[in-house]
Specification:
The structure holds 2 protein chains of 2 kinds. By secondary structure, chain A is mainly α. Chain A is 81% helix and 0% strand. Chain A has 2 domains: 149 residues, Serine Threonine Protein Phosphatase 5, Tetratricopeptide repeat (Alpha Horseshoe); 89 residues. Chain A is elongated, with a radius of gyration of 31 Å. By secondary structure, chain B is an all-alpha fold. Classes of the chains: A mainly alpha, B mainly alpha. The interface between A and B is medium-sized, with 22 and 26 residues.
Chain lengths: 279, 280
């Protein structure tokens, strides 16, 4: 009887010691998670790293690496975030988790504007038959990548693949329609000086450009008619040609500036008004 | 008795597990791991945590070294370390502080610290002497060639001599000479200040406007004559002013490149800081 009690006490003690170790790890994980939720990202990373260091059995590898990645991402340290997401991916317990981690890597790439890389990873995911049921999510993030790459029309097409009435489809389509064609602005200014500026809504600048070109054009032609060839060449080359070229460059600059404004407004609209998942 | 011992062992183990992440030794181990992962900021914090309850010379030095690795030189300078030789890393820490002063361009404080190191018969005396020589270059101070190259070995001597030559004979351009050149031949001052393209452009522009002025006066187009004369005068004066500015920019560039090359060289040499292998 006494022997049995002794045996039970011994078993209980060993069991409790082992269980306590588990609890300590879990507590550490919970503590790190609470720091993450309190937006204490620096401390959260420290505590997740501590968990990784003491987690001899690698039971928390995936969760800790993934959360370190998320914390770094929240602190806009995208290179570090990707590094830890890759580590998480290596220890991912299931295909779903691999996909989830890959999406996090894609989102980091979108945010750090390495959109080519994001699109490449998305294509790899699309080609993988394991993720055949995740097509919508792949298209969704490809749409975001294309928006961040200023390819709004292509982005709209990606969102349309998910659903015709997808809210991002309308936003991307709308922005795409608002954008000015830089080539058209330049071409217009080639044909009629100042026309490119008119096209981008810079009427005063367009009128000024036209006036300068008329003035120097007139003086150049007048000099040639008066057989002052050298004068004609000089005024034509140093003044007319300079203003003509300036007018084309100006039209291009305006188109790019206006497009930047439209894109920034679009991104602001997405940030403030769109409630779905964002990178 | 045997059973009691085993029970005691198991409960101790439980208690140890609860202290798993917070015992000083575990904190130190974790800090060492962070240090070797190059996560110096967190390593420094963990070392500080360890030092609140324990004392260890290596940990103190690795704390300072962590700040140094992050280029946080003010933290290196403000780190409280023992000022006695009993501190194992005394010489190393003093030298780290010296490099920090150098990198913060605090040369007056550098001189004081350097003389203290020299007096204390530091094992890093030669390294200190080498760094002192570089302050002569950085401050543009005068020193003899023999003095400047003396602490360096044969491999380095040529480079130091090269720096010395560059300091003694900087390839400066005289702004006055640039102005004189440009007033004789427009654009030549710019060519002298290493701006060949600008020089040719200035020469052509001034020349063309001057010719246009002459041609128009000759053809009795007085307004155009004066108009182009004004433009030619403007370009002529602007070109002289531009030549002086170009010479000054050139000189600033020479000085900048010289100091930049020194910084690159010192970075390559890790500012003569000895190699510390704490991770293997």
């Amino acid at each position: 009887m006494i022997f049995a009690i002794k045996k039970a006490a011994l078993f209980l003690s060993i069991f409790s010691a082992a269980a306590f170790s588990q609890t300590a790890m879990q507590k550490q994980y919970d503590y790190a998670i609470s720091l993450y939720h309190d937006e204490e990202y620096f401390d959260a990373i420290t505590e997740f790293k501590r968990l990784l260091f003491f987690d001899g059995k690698n039971e928390f590898s995936f969760e800790a690496n993934s959360m370190i990645g998320k914390s770094y991402k929240a602190g806009a340290k995208f290179d570090d975030a990707i590094r830890y997401f890759v580590l998480a991916q290596i220890t991912a317990p299931s295909k779903d988790k691999v996909f989830e981690t890959q999406i996090e890597i894609i989102r980091c790439n979108i945010l750090r504007r390495t959109t080519d890389r994001a699109i490449r990873i998305l294509s790899d995911l699309e080609a993988d038959p394991s993720f055949i049921n995740n097509k919508d999510e792949i298209n969704y993030w490809r749409g975001w990548a294309l928006m961040f790459d200023d390819r709004w029309k292509e982005a709209a097409a990606e969102f349309e693949k998910i659903e015709k009435a997808h809210p991002l489809n309308a936003i991307a389509e709308n922005i795409s329609k608002q954008l000015y064609s830089v080539t058209l602005a330049k071409s217009l200014s080639y044909v009629i000086p100042g026309a490119g500026q008119f096209y981008t809504g810079h009427y005063f600048s367009g009128a000024l450009s036209l006036a300068w070109n008329i003035l120097w054009g007139y003086l150049t032609v007048n000099a040639f008619i008066g057989e002052r060839i050298f004068d004609g060449l000089m005024v034509g080359n140093l003044l007319w040609f300079r203003f003509y070229r300036g007018n084309i460059q100006n039209a291009e600059k305006f188109a790019l500036e206006e497009n930047l404004k439209i894109i920034n407004n679009g991104l602001k609209q997405l940030q403030n008004e769109y409630n779905g998942e964002k990178p | 008795m045997k059973i009691i011992s085993i029970l005691f062992f198991c409960y101790s183990l439980s208690l140890a597990q609860s202290q798993l992440f917070n015992s000083p030794q575990e904190v130190k181990k974790f800090a060492d791991y962070l240090y070797c992962e190059s996560d110096y900021l967190r390593a420094a914090e963990e070392y500080q945590r360890f030092l609140r309850t324990d004392k260890n010379d290596t940990v103190i030095f690795k704390s300072v070294l962590s700040y140094y690795m992050m280029d946080r030189f003010s933290d290196v300078l403000n780190f409280p370390v023992s000022s006695t030789k009993s501190f194992v890393f005394y010489d190393d820490t003093q030298f780290l502080k010296l490099i920090s002063l150098f990198r913060l361009n605090m040369f007056d404080e550098f001189d004081i610290e350097a003389s203290l190191i020299k007096m204390s018969r530091s094992k890093l005396k030669t390294n200190t002497e080498k760094l002192i020589r570089f302050t002569f270059f950085m401050r543009d101070s005068i020193a003899s060639k023999g003095f400047l190259v003396s602490p360096f070995d044969e491999n380095e001597k040529t480079t130091i001599e090269n720096f010395y030559e560059r300091q003694q004979n900087p390839q400066h351009r005289s702004p006055l000479l640039a102005a004189v050149f440009s007033s004789i031949i427009p654009g030549s001052g710019k060519v002298y200040a290493d701006k060949l393209g600008d020089g040719i452009f200035a020469f052509l522009t001034t020349g063309v406007f001057a010719f246009l002025a002459y041609d128009n006066f000759k053809a009795d187009h007085k307004f155009r004559g004066w108009f182009f004369s004004g433009l030619a005068g403007l370009f002529y004066a602007g070109n002289i002013y531009g030549s002086v500015a170009a010479a000054q920019i050139f000189n600033a560039g020479v000085q900048f490149n010289f100091q930049n090359d020194i910084q690159i060289y010192l970075t390559k040499k890790k500012h003569y800081l000895p190699e510390y292998d704490f991770c293997n």
